[in-house]
Amino acid sequence: MKTKLIFLAVLFMTILNIKAQCNPTITSPRLGVKFPDKILFCNTETEILSTQAFGSYQWYKQEWTWQTPNNNPWTAIPGAISQTLTINGNDDQLYYFKVEVTQGDCTAESPAVMADGFAYGLPSMLSTFTPGTFQQVGEGEYNICAGASVQFDDVFPDLYGSHVWYRCIPNSPPPSVGDPCVINGATGDTYIATASGAYGFYACTEYCPDQCEFLGSGNFVKLNFGNFESCILATDETKRKENNLKLYPNPASQFLYIGKESDKTYKEISIIDMSGKVILQKSSHRFNEPIDVSTLTVGNYIILSKDSEGNTYKNKFIKK
């Protein structure tokens, strides 16, 4: 009899312990399809988040930011006190979501998930020039030394799938059969130009194949190849070093520091936007001097830094 009582007592305590445990998680149809812990929208469609059955629920949301850690507050969503929560691609992109639940005397929060989307990622093109082989002669127009090349990259390679690259501005995108502006066989997210033309692309998102975008004629880059007086082909003398020059903070909102103490000074610092336009340039820059970037538009930039020995460093920088 004593043995039975001990067994029942242990069983009773085990049941109470199970009831007291509450470890909520969030599930939804799109969660993790492309990236872990993310829900990706194609447009303004809706998505239903759900968690396990508990006694009570309260859903929260937090706005996304570039900063780490994210210091934006978690806000309780009014009326979101059921087992499910419906979100949409119009109002809820770039937010994190979590749910707090109670079960008996247990209270717990789920891991957060993020609602992201491809609808906001309009096409953008990065132009990479070899130092000493180009000169800007107008808005979006460059003279390129004969024998050099210019590399064009889709800024969002994870977003877009198959591309159509153009060598001139088409009359009516999407591309049509026989369009003379289309570069046959160029379907990747990178194209290297070696001939004169106006370059841009049309591409469809990989995750949302029905969503296609045209770069826009105003964002095409015109290249003129030739033997220009300004040409200084320094390919043999210039060593391009990728990602080994210190930039901090990155992202930055007001002041940016470029360089390392061993280099002391830099002959030239150039900040280039996504269209390849030089928007800020400084000579005789010291490694410990701040560069004011507060007036730059939020986005991605390339920084070319030439040290006292003529080496050129290429780094990416984010303005927030």
UniProtKB/TrEMBL annotation:
Residues 247-318 form the Secretion system C-terminal sorting domain. Keywords: Signal. It holds the Pfam family Por_Secre_tail. InterPro entries: Secre_tail. It comes from the Bacteria. Residues 1-20 form the signal peptide. This is Por secretion system C-terminal sorting domain.
